[in-house]
Write a structure and sequence with these properties.
Layout (H helix, E strand, L loop, with lengths): L1 E6 L4 H17 L3 E7 L3 H9 L5 E2 L12 H25 L3 E4 L6 H9 L4 E5 L6 H8 L4 E3 L13 E2 L12 H8 L9 E6 L6 H8 L10 E6 L3 H6 L9 E5 L5 H6 L2 E4 L3 H10 L4 E2 L9 H13 L2 E2 L6 H14 L11 H14 L5
Parallel strand pairs: 1-2, 1-4, 2-3, 4-5, 5-6, 6-7, 8-9, 8-11, 9-10, 12-13
Helix pairs in contact: 3-4, 10-11
C-alpha cells in the first residue's frame, strides 16, 4: 500500500485542487491511500467538511510574514515549531511514502519535515507566479508541477505543466439548477452574470459592478454573487440598483452555479479561472491588486491568452469594464480547456510516480 499525503490550506484555491486530485486517486488507484493536511483556520475545516473529509490539522494559522507586529510574528513562529513536531509524528505514524504540497502557508512545515525525513516531495503551483514555498522547493531541486505554461520566475525546465485538478462539472438545465441555488425566487428571464470573489469574497467587485447597472445595455442582466449573503450584497450597492443583484451564498459544489451563467466576473484566483475555462464560461477578470507578487494579474493574463477572455484593472475606466463585459457575451469565443477531464490529475500522477522512482498502480 502506497500512502500519499496531500497538503493544502488557506483558501479554496489551494484546497479544492488537492481534494479533486485526492478523489481522482481514490477512484482509480486501489493500492493507494490518501490523507489530507491543513492548518487550523475555520474556513479550511469547513471546505474539507463539505467534501466529507477529516484532515489532519496542524497548529498553524498563517505565515509569520503575513502579519505585522512583533508579538503576532513571534506567536506564528511558535506555531511553526509546534507544527514541525506535530507533522513529524503524523508522518511517522501514518507511514507516508510521498508528500504533495498544494501551496499556501501550510506547505512550509511539511516541506521541511519531508526533506529531513527523505520522503519524496512534489509541489503543485496553481498560480502563474510561484509562491515562496514553491520557489524554495525549486531551489532544493524538487519537482514542481505548474497549472499553467508560466510559473514566474521559474524558467522552462524547472517545472512541469500538468494543469490544475478541478471539481467535476457537467452543465445542467438552468431552471433546475436555479432551484438548488436560489430558494423561493422565480427563475429570471435575464442573462445571469456570476460574481466570483473567491472563498473570502470581495465586496469591491459588487461595488464596481453596481456602478454600471444604470446603463440601458445591462437592463437584461442579473448579477449573481457567489459566497456572499444578501445583507452583504445590499450593503455594498445603492438601494435603487439592488434588484439587479442576488446572493447565492457559499456553493462548495459549483455545478448548479456554473450551469446558470452566461458570463462571469471573477477575481484572479487560478483555480477559479481554470474551472471557468473548463466550463467555457466567458469572463472578464478583475485581479486583486494587493495579491502577493501580483500573481492574480499574471493568472488573469494567462487565462485571457488561453480563452480570449478579458482583463480589467481597477484603475481602468468603468466604460472599459462595460465594454469588456458586453464584448465577451457577444463573441462567446471562450475556449474549452486543452485537456480532457482528469488529464490534469493523470499528468500530476505521472510526475509523482517519477519522483518516487516507480510507477504506482
Amino acid at each position: 500500500m502506497t500512502r500519499i499525503c496531500l497538503v493544502a490550506g488557506g483558501t479554496g484555491g489551494h484546497i479544492f485542487p488537492a481534494v479533486s486530485f485526492g478523489e481522482w486517486i481514490t477512484s482509480r488507484k486501489e493500492d493507494v491511500s490518501v490523507s489530507y493536511v491543513c492548518g487550523s483556520r475555520p474556513l479550511e475545516r469547513e471546505i474539507y467538511s463539505s467534501r466529507g473529509i477529516e484532515p489532519f490539522l496542524l497548529p498553524l494559522s498563517g505565515s509569520p510574514f503575513g502579519v505585522k507586529g512583533l508579538l503576532p510574528r513571534v506567536r506564528r513562529w511558535r506555531q511553526i515549531f509546534a507544527a514541525l513536531f506535530s507533522f513529524r509524528r503524523f508522518m511517522k505514524e501514518s507511514g507516508i511514502n510521498c508528500c504533495v504540497l498544494f501551496g499556501g502557508y501550510v506547505s512550509f512545515v511539511p516541506l521541511l519535515v519531508s526533506r529531513m525525513g527523505r520522503i519524496p516531495v512534489v509541489i503543485h503551483e496553481q498560480n502563474c507566479a510561484a509562491g515562496k514555498v514553491t520557489r524554495l522547493a525549486s531551489r532544493l531541486g524538487l519537482p514542481v508541477a505548474s497549472g499553467w505554461s508560466s510559473c514566474d520566475p521559474l524558467s522552462e525546465g524547472e517545472f512541469t505543466v500538468t494543469g490544475i485538478p478541478i471539481r467535476p462539472f457537467r452543465r445542467k438545465n438552468p431552471r433546475e439548477a436555479w432551484k438548488n441555488v436560489i430558494k423561493g425566487v422565480p427563475f429570471p428571464e435575464k442573462r445571469i452574470i456570476g460574481i466570483l470573489g473567491g472563498s473570502l469574497m470581495s465586496q469591491r467587485l459588487i461595488q464596481l459592478l453596481s456602478c454600471i447597472i444604470g446603463e440601458k445595455e445591462f437592463d437584461q442582466f442579473l448579477f449573481l454573487t457567489l459566497g456572499a449573503h444578501e445583507e452583504e450584497v445590499y450593503a455594498a450597492i445603492p438601494r435603487e440598483r439592488r434588484s439587479s443583484f442576488l446572493a447565492a451564498g457559499k456553493q462548495w459544489d459549483m455545478t448548479d452555479f456554473y450551469s446558470l451563467l452566461s458570463g462571469a466576473v471573477p477575481r484572479g484566483g487560478a483555480s477559479t479561472l481554470y474551472e471557468l475555462m473548463a466550463g467555457g464560461i466567458p469572463s472578464v477578470v478583475i485581479p486583486w491588486k494587493e495579491a502577493a507578487d501580483n500573481h492574480q494579474e499574471k493568472n488573469a493574463r494567462c487565462f485571457a491568452e488561453c480563452t480570449g477572455g478579458e482583463v480589467w484593472k481597477e484603475d481602468d475606466s468603468l466604460e472599459l469594464l462595460q465594454g469588456k463585459i458586453l464584448s465577451i457575451l457577444r463573441e462567446k469565443d471562450t475556449c474549452r480547456k486543452y485537456f480532457s477531464e482528469g488529464d490534469e490529475s493523470e499528468a500530476l500522477w505521472r510526475l509523482i510516480s517519477s519522483s518516487i522512482g516507480r510507477e504506482i498502480n
